[in-house]
Amino acid sequence: MPKFFLKTYGCQMNERDSEQVAHSLMARGYERVGHESEADVVLLNTCSVRDMADQKALGKMGMLGRMAKERPHVVFGFLGCMAQARGAELLKNLPYVDLVVGTQKFHRVPDYLDELVAKKKSRISEDAQRPTYNVRRTMQNRMDDPRFSIVDIAEEAGSQSMIRKQQLAPRQTTAFVSIMQGCNMHCTFCIVPQTRGAERSRSIDEIVNEVRDLVSRGVKEITLLGQIVNLYGRHEFSKIDNKSPFVQLLEAVNEIDGLERLRFTSPHPIGFRDDLIDALSRLPKLAEHVHLPLQSGSNKILKAMHRAYTGEKYRDLVQCIRQARETISITTDIIVGFPGETEDDYKRTRDLVGEIQFDNAFVFRYSPRRGTPAATMPDQIDERIKEERNQDLLQVVNESSHRKLERLVGRDVEVLCEGQSKTNPERLMGRTRTNKIVVFQGCDELVGELVNVRIEQANGFSLYGTTIRGNIGILPVSSGGHPACSNAAGWKPA
Known about the structure:
globular, alpha/beta, 18 strands, CATH 2.40.50.140, Rossmann fold, five-stranded mixed β-barrel, 3 domains, 36% helix, pyruvate-formate lyase- activating enzyme
């Protein structure tokens, strides 16, 4: 069977979609490989939220043009949000691209690829000199054009039905669960409503069953995903005891035996009502971390963005969240250089960020998205000014982030071990309940376990520490240390 390579750009939702496609291909008999040079099928799952993601995907596919000439049997395809937004334009500008599939037709990818692989193989065997893009022309004549789809909610039912049984890596301990699709907010800078469609939510029972299955296979931490996750179910389900459908879902997932941690991303400030703040204070499995997009500290710019709150209301909300859970960490998204942003507007953002003291933040230069209102607004900001504001605000964020990390030095924290450190394979890494990355020395048997780590150093954006007594799997009753750990190079029980 063919081998496939799949690269993902963008958010956790895209990562989840990629796993959905990968699982469906492997179920069909395709083999997943780690590099495009080994593949018969090369797929890029794309993002359109920011120009940088677009350019990375286009650049990668452009680099694959040489491979298309050298290996004419390989099928090349775009999936996801950029495929949804640009459609036929991608086929026109990149003649070796065979497949463009939007966000509601992921379930059709195996059928499309079976047909494309077979046609390319047949054409090459018939005439090695015949241009492979004839395959595309043949398929473009079909009424059911497989390379491009509009946002098609009816199609999505088939796509969603195949993701219920996630393919997990060995000893995988964290997983994403999509609880809804689409967005109704129509922020003026955002293309998501065009690429993902209107809000629609899965049922609580369906989500709980998926989480329960993942936990039964070893997953200990679940992140619930949605474009605006805390508005889940507001059109489909009713409040019960004055609790929103989202809080009802959190309560149901919190009750699942074996689940250790529960997270959600990304919310909107307007969806943080009293019932959700109360849930943060009382649900024990809900991790002490909220990612709460700010976007701007200027009320004028927030209004132009259609964000429906003010800087003052955002600040008050942060105070309420921190009062509900003292140890909670708060991260955010911020856009600088939005059309019409003056120096005074930027200063308001900078001052609010300095006042709130975020644990971390993603700071983005505004990039126009075709088809969004902000793209045609007057007073577009010069790229040089955007970059200056971006770097200045990053410095403010980094200073507060480093202070937060330094405060943890000398403390004991609970870490869910996810596997080897990406920067040092001889060490392990995991995350605290507040979503801080911790690197520590230990044995492979700790992967997937909750371990206690004493923080010894804060460096950059990570913490470094040593495992301490009481960790699961380290100190069995019958011996002075875990048998596998006691022989690990350089490892000593604390």
